[in-house]
Amino acid sequence: MNKKTVFMVVCLSFITTIAVYSAVMYLFPGSADYEKQGFVHAKDFGAVPGDEKDDGASIQEAVDYSAEHNIGTVKVTGGERYRMESEVVIKQGVEIEFGRNTVVEVVGDFTVFTLEKNASIINGVIEISDASFKSSVITLDGKEQFWSWEITQIHGLTLINTSGENSGTGINVTADQTNEYVSFVDFASLTIVGFNRGIHLKAVPSDEDPNFVNGNRFTNVTLEDCVECIVMEGAVTVPNEVSGNQFTNMQIQPTDKTESIMTVSGTNNYFQGMIWDIQLLFNNQPIELKDQSNGNTIMTNLNASYIRDNGVNNTYE
């Protein structure tokens, strides 16, 4: 075998190896060195933007892979449009990162994203286009027992219902069984538009250990065109306490569909922000402090005449 033949054989072997490797990388995304790059992309698990098919299962597969292999981040990026017809549970230790201009269209009625503790979701636009939607876009369930040393974060999202029905809930935080709690979670730079309830915090009494939703921070939140913008259901203390939650730098834009700006139970919750175009409302007291409210502070541009106060020791300016 002469040198020219040997050279051709070596080149052919090299090209064949590269082709096989590329095919494996395409067909089996788990073979890629995701651990080294520090993230997986939903496209590698079958998500195809713009094809009008469900990408929820592919995003879930990417989340599961990331959790199993301790990778941490699932990217769904680019100025593209994805479609979800099934729930995604963001597993412990996983962050879903959407591009700022990435749109996820939700078709159907189901909880869109449920976060386990130490899970996060950032950026992107979640659009509800289905008039049948009655569920929640983002859910935190107190069975996860969110606490101060967890790093759960919900940042930079736009949640918008474009169906015209003002249905469903933007963010739902619930402790409703026994010994359930959601505390010290950061929600920041959120825009919530067109829902029945924008933000809903709820603690239900238990015959055993108490449930509570306490000490969460909502910063730089815009609420627009919601029937009920903020609803807090619970008591001033255990067994179903909703207390010490902070809402700062809020911008609230009601429409003629808005019935309530805030309905507040619990103790020492704090609200600060701007409420626009109050003349659009039929309800002349759109802020209600329930009989199970104590020591809450409301600092907005609305005076006391817009507030129905059935609690004790509440203050407002």
UniProtKB/TrEMBL annotation:
Matching InterPro entries: Pectin_lyas_fold, Pectin_lyase_fold/virulence
Keyword entries, A-Z: Membrane, Transmembrane, Transmembrane helix
Top-level taxon of the source organism: Bacteria
Transmembrane segments: 6-28
Protein name, entry field: Pectate lyase superfamily protein domain-containing protein
Source organism: Halobacillus kuroshimensis
